[in-house]
Amino acid sequence: MQSQQAPDEETPLLRTQACVQHESSKATRTPLPWRQISILLLLQLSEPLTGQVIAPFIPQLIRDVGVTHGDDSSIGYYVGLMYFLFFMTEAFTIFHWSRASDQIGRKPVLLTGLLGLSMSMYCVGLSKTFWGLVLSRCLNGALNGNIGIMKSMVAEITDPTNIAQACSVMPLAWFSGITIGPLIGGLLEHPAKKFPTVFGGSTFFKTYPYFLPCSVAGTFAVICWFIAYFLLEEMSPKDYILGRKPKPQEPNEGSSAIMENGIHCDTSEGQLPLRQLLVPSVLIAAGCYAFFALTDIAVRTVLPVYFAIPVEMGGLGLDPSAIGTILALLGLVGGVCQSLLFAPLHDRLGPKNLYLTGTSLYIPVIALFPVTTWVARERGLGSLVWTLVGSQMILCVFVGFSFSVTFIYVNAAAPNRASIGATNGLAQMTVSVMRAVGPAVSNSAFSLSIQRHLMGGYFVYWLMAVMATISLAMGFFLPKKPWKV
Question: Taking the model in full, what pTM does it have?
């Protein structure tokens, strides 16, 4: 048997995960561990649910706290600031949470994140001042390191034969969350007005009109905490002794790789320092993920503001219920398409072509913003406007396939098995920075476009088009297939 060449610090360990397929034979597809996958799906649902439940009413909440002083054109600034605060505080902490999960285990960090999500949602519902909202969003971001942790856990329970199948299933939680979250937020805000027979006599819900939807999301995070505590298995429980991961033993010659399910896996290396994670494969994968996330969050945070702003100011003038319904349908259709189409398209086009195709669709998505507004001004909110909105949402669904591709590349870039969590944490940290910058920049640009009529009022759309172009250009640096030893 030929000896396996020992990987150096710039050699990524994975083709799509922590292993590479044996060159001499094809491995059959390994069945997914559905029990663990199902629990991770449920836990992951808490992330978009708590994040998106505020989307339909955040413009109105900004009005209610009085920070805009009646100037609707400045709502975009403050909506962007709310997203900025969450993602920036997350960026400062998420790498450390991910690094900690490599040391003490994934489960303790997950439980801390779920507790933080719950506390922050109750705080948002009880906020009556702008600074109350600020503290709530900062708390949410600082205690939330779960995204990178769950991606690491998925990487640890899959292999190159079933990673695409896992990637077609895991986004179901995200799309379910962005479906249910806006529905909860749009339907349950101001319950005393909408459901007077049930809540009309409640002084509490009249005083705190947004507490009900926030408490539903926060309580779901509490339920997830108990499910994780009692049912979730640590991915490698034998590796964590008294809260710390022991250093690996020195391997014998030729023993740096072992066989798991017909796959060569490197288990000889310990956790790498940060500087050794900054290899080209990690930087390229994380860069694609970050710039795509920048474009995605810019579009998604402008979307509800665009829907809420009056037609004469460049929006569509929809109420929170209509906005919640549109966003919910986007999530529903996205989840169905992701589960049915991602794996076949991944196998047919390859990961790089699928990323490039999905990212390129952002150009028509962005172009439809001013086109739909122009039609609304000329013909009112008729069938043509709703056709254009529907077309834009469908394009957004197919754009989302690129996110799943970046997940595969990031895990494939991990220099060794012991650094999967740190690699995901590093990628998620850069994404959090972009997601902090994106809403602040795009919503500020939206407000500037309205207030100063920059570039004919279309400045924000040109800016988002530049973001999309950079995301597309970054994709050309990806290899045709994820890295392999």
Answer: 0.69
